[in-house]
Amino acid sequence: MKTENQKAWFFVLPVLALVAFNALIPMMTVVNYSVQETFGNNQFFWEGLTWFEQILRSERFHAALGRQFLFTFLILIIEVPLGVAIALSMPRSGPWVSVCLVLMALPMLIPWNVVGAMWNIFALPDIGLLGYFLNHTLGIDYDMTQNPFAAWVTIITMDVWHWTSLVVLLAYAGLVSIPDAYYQAAKIDGASNWSVFRYIQLPKMKNVLTIAILLRFMDSFNIYTEPFVLTGGGPGNSTTLLSIDLVKIALGQFDLGPAAAMSLIYFAITLLVSWLFYTLMTKDDLN
Amino acid sequence: MAKITLKNLRHSYMPNPSGPEDYALKEVDVDWADGGAYALLGPSGCGKSTLLNIISGLLVPSEGHVLFDDQDVTQRTPDQRNIAQVFQFPVIYDTMTVRENLSFPLKNRGVDAGTIARRVAEIAEMLEVSDMLDRRAAGLSPDNKQKISMGRGLVRDDVNVVMFDEPLTVIDPHLKWKLRSKLKELHQRVGRTMIYVTHDQTEALTFADKVVVMQDGEVVQIGTPVELFERPTHTFVGHFIGSPGMNLLPATLRDGGAFFQDQNITLEGAVTTGTKGAVEIGVRPEFVTLSNSGVPARVTKVSDVGRHHVVETMAGDTKVAAIMNGAIPNTGDAVHLQFKPSQTRVYADGWLATQPGA
Predict the structure, then answer these.
(1) Nearest to A188 among B85, B88, B94 (CB)
(2) Is B108–A189 a contact, with Cβ atoms under 8 angstroms apart?
(3) Each residue of A132-175: pLDDT tens digit?
(4) What is the CATH classification number for the domain harbouring A120?
(5) How much is the ipTM here?
(6) Is there a domain that residue B205 lies in?
(7) B309, exposed or middle or buried, with CB in 10 Å at 0-12, 13-18, 19+?
(8) Which candidate in A172, A247, B7, B309 could, as Cys together with A87 as Cys, close a disulfide (CB 3.0–4.6 Å)?
(9) CB spacing of A187 vs B149 below 8 angstroms
(10) A23: in domain
């Protein structure tokens, strides 16, 4: 007979406690708010699913969600190919490897609010280096505080500047792990550069790229600090992404019930898309 | 198909080699006939992979020339040389099916679809992978993957030479034997020049008609398996090939004979005139017998290796092994060793220094 030892539970306990305090309990508080109405003084009134219905039907939510998807879509479609292209052109060996890696890692080391502030100043039309150059040297009418299109170009450029490196580093790690024999075999088989990319490099990078895309999706879908510092969601509501809108509802208007319902919906969408994406990307590996 | 000639080939991985020790490959001159099966045999780091990469064109030698059918191809790229190479680890294109993998080298060269289909079917049948043609190559076992790698080399019917770089390294022992005989069979069927690099003597001796033994960047002997076994021209070959390897007995030369433990040992022939340096007598364990007279020794160990016994003895402070069938002495017995004269030779500084017997 096998005797079962229950001691292992004690070792799991600290982690359970930690997860409870930093995730489960705050999350349950949000659930609690999402089904009740409160006017302060710790007085709560049961509301059922009213807030969820209200959020799901709200045009404001639809608009913010649309902007969020557009933002994430744009940065993914720029950062992933760009990151792969940069990784492909980086040296595989020699003294320049470390120089390239450090240069690539630099933007990611900068705190998010600093990135927002830097780009804010950089893009200001009258005094910023970029803003001044575009307006006064090139004569392009560029003002991200007035023009929604300019604001979008700026937040996208900022995100590309800040996070393409992540894709580069992951793709590079995938590339250097390909044994030389593959390239030699391809040479002998008479493969073109495109074939080498399509049949050797891309398949070997697939796993790291899946991780890169997942990370960039989750991060960009939940992005808050950088656009908040850069544009504050404006001009108008043109760059009010989901998280910015959520904070406006929760802390600006102090509508805790709808804000709680919105966070739960937001969370569910992030989870669902990540799961869908991961399942689609890895379904080939199963057979 | 082609005859391969290597002329004064030298290679160094350093930009400015100063002495011979800087060369990974020291002066190699070899002629390989069209359609032969050759093996490059040597321990790790002896330069055999360097030599292979020079032949395939993955590496340009520091000095010397590579000729295919008397045409200098030293500066040509691997695909211009029209060669095929199978690597230590199976290289397959993961996202393709087995069929696509096998057609890939032909497709890249613009061969028409009908020919591709015919060649792929032929090669798949030869390699016994016909039933897997439409499977994804990524899911195959290592030995099947290695077969596909070989198949990509064999599918082109115009390759000058097919090279194998220790292709059985990752294959399970019980499949090694199967793949090895498959390779031999393939060579007979396609009749193409093949060069097989390995550090395993069994692989080299079973595959090749002629074996090139290398050590420290130098070719020490080229010969048929029988020649390498019976008349090694260098103690390294004697030692590296055979199990156990050749016995080497420190000896002195005087009065035109070779002496070991103060006994004149009969040799296959006369010692080459002018021989000097460190002299050793070389004799394989297969040609050592126990007798009532001869070099006195004491048995230290007897091991049963199946087909025969390996008897280890000490003659003075020199270890001498003998391979024996039938009556076996006990450990500790005092015995006398006899060496078969026609298989007993003198080596000076490692190199053979006796004339072949009449």
Answers:
(1) B85
(2) yes
(3) 888 888 878 878 888 888 889 989 999 999 999 999 999 999 99
(4) 1.10.3720.10
(5) 0.75
(6) yes
(7) middle
(8) A172
(9) no
(10) no
